[in-house]
Amino acid sequence: MKNEQYYTAQPSSKDEEFSFNRDLAGFNFKFYSNNGVFSKNTIDFGTQTLISTVDQLPIFPKKILDLGTGYGPIALFAAKHFPKAQILASDVNERALDLAKKNFIANDLTEHIDVIESSLFDQIEDNFDLVLTNPPIRAGKTIINTLVEDSYQHLNLDGNLILVVQKKQGEPSLKRKMEDVFGNCEILKRNKGYYILSSKKKSSAV
């Protein structure tokens, strides 16, 4: 379908699986991809920027959520960069999750990564030290605001939500929302119109 979005649960676009290799933060990964998933042909610039930023942070999370994992690049990076952490990779797109599972196997990282089908936090009960996401901005402001609010509720004290957003796709309003919910929001990086935003949970209630 021409207008089908990558956050569709069951993509109806033609099944044409393929593979490619890509370096991320010094790690080489093999990726399987397909139609109907986000940035199917390569790792998108926003995700690359998010990964390169997190790669430089002095943080040591034990539990990480890759919210909206797609075919798994952020989760794969996290498993390599934080080898002592346990990662949960979630997505609503069933085809993307099938690819992510295949990619975790192909890169021998299944011991570090669990997978769950979930629309935002609908099926997620755990709390985390770090939530990483390239959020589905096109899903609309209500969805993105819920993502921020629910991330707060599912973070441990001193845990971080770190995400990427383009300025032209609503970075100023998203930053304000993160400040409203968390009481803080830091711009970690600006790169060609992409912003990496980070908020820390400093109290147990909004």
Automatic annotation (TrEMBL):
InterPro entries xref list: RsmC/RlmG, SAM-dependent_MTases_sf, Small_mtfrase_dom
Keywords, in A-Z order: Methyltransferase, Transferase
GO biological process: methylation
Pfam families: MTS
N-terminal signal peptide: none
Residue ranges of every copy of the Methyltransferase small domain listed in the record: 29-197
Domain of life: Bacteria
Gene Ontology molecular functions: S-adenosylmethionine-dependent methyltransferase activity
Keyword Lipid metabolism: no
PANTHER family documented for this protein: RIBOSOMAL RNA SMALL SUBUNIT METHYLTRANSFERASE C
Name of this protein: 16S RNA G1207 methylase RsmC
Species the sequence originates in: Xylocopilactobacillus apis
Phylogenetic placement of the source organism: Bacteria, Bacillati, Bacillota, Bacilli, Lactobacillales
